[in-house]
Amino acid sequence: MTHEEQVLCETARFRVVRHRREAPDGGVLARDFIEHPGAVTIVPLLDDGRVCLIKNRRLAVGEQLVELPAGTLEPDEDPLATAFRELAEETGYRAEQMEKIHEFYMSPGIMNERMYLFVATGLTEGETSLDSGEEIEILPTAWEEAMSMACDGRIQDAKSLVGLLLYDRLRRG
User: What is the pLDDT along the chain (173 residues), one digit of tens a residue?
Assistant: First the structure.
């Protein structure tokens, strides 16, 4: 048997696809996965040492979460361009520099979403440009307080935990 794919659901942001292939024991292995175009998350560092977190209403979990700014890649969009765009849209800040520090998979057991992690510096304030339905509030936070929030459970968003903790490790050497 060759690898077969069946699209079960297609939305503007992702597809759910059933993959079938021959299993090592000769049987048929069928798995449903979410195919996602990828996304970025940004650690925005203000000149005074604070990090610009956001409070974001997340309908999927029915809560307002503390997060790093983030967003989905548009078709054929470079992750660096997405990072600049999403930072400005969600926080109003424009960055002079944007450095990619890592890439990782969000939940490889069920989807192929690759997250690109950037650090933004040289920030200048501006106006946000939120998508329809987005409920986002900026939350400039002292770095040590952000680390406390990551460790005590106030930050529950995986990409934000990875971004903050990894950058903290890198900056400490």
Answer: 678 999 999 998 899 999 999 988 989 999 999 999 999 999 999 999 999 999 999 999 999 999 999 999 999 999 999 999 999 999 999 999 999 999 999 999 999 999 999 999 999 999 998 888 889 999 999 999 999 999 999 999 999 999 999 999 999 98
- Cα 82 to Cα 149: distance, rounded to the nearest angstrom: 26
The structure's pTM equals 0.92
42, 83 in Cβ contact below 8 A? yes
Taking each helix axis from N to C end, the angle separating 143-152 and 158-172, rounded to the nearest 10 degrees, works out to 130
CATH code for the domain of 130: 3.90.79.10
| 90 and 157 assigned to the same domain | yes
On whether both 74 and 23 belong to a single domain, the answer is: no
Q: How many domains does the chain have?
A: 2
Cβ-proximal residues to 62 (8 Å cutoff; 6+ apart), any chain:
none
